[in-house]
# Entry
Amino acid sequence: NWTDRQFVPEWGPHTAHLLGADRALAFDVCGACTGFVHGVQTAAALFGAHAGWRHALVVSSERFSRRVRPGSKGELIVGDAAGAAVLSRGAEPGAGLWDSLLISDGSGRETVTVYPPNGWIKSSR
# Structure
């Protein structure tokens, strides 16, 4: 979650506690629009690194409407959304995330900006 970001304590451990999963590894992945994709990628990598891990819960939410002034250019490119998925380790050999490619392109960095203190989204286009 980027739009309602709370740095300490993170939402991941709080969510795990509410679910009664107090012994689970829980943490936040702050990726704005791509947070859910990064969460799935991270879970797949952790499954590969820890043979005993069987399940992962990925939760993502954004409320961009809190960060956009009505009528601004930023209103046209972002929206509110939420999603959740329970991922389970596959029993068959070769099961899991087959392929993915995540890259970053910082060339458009100034296209959409958010600066403190108010955190309003601004679009240059």
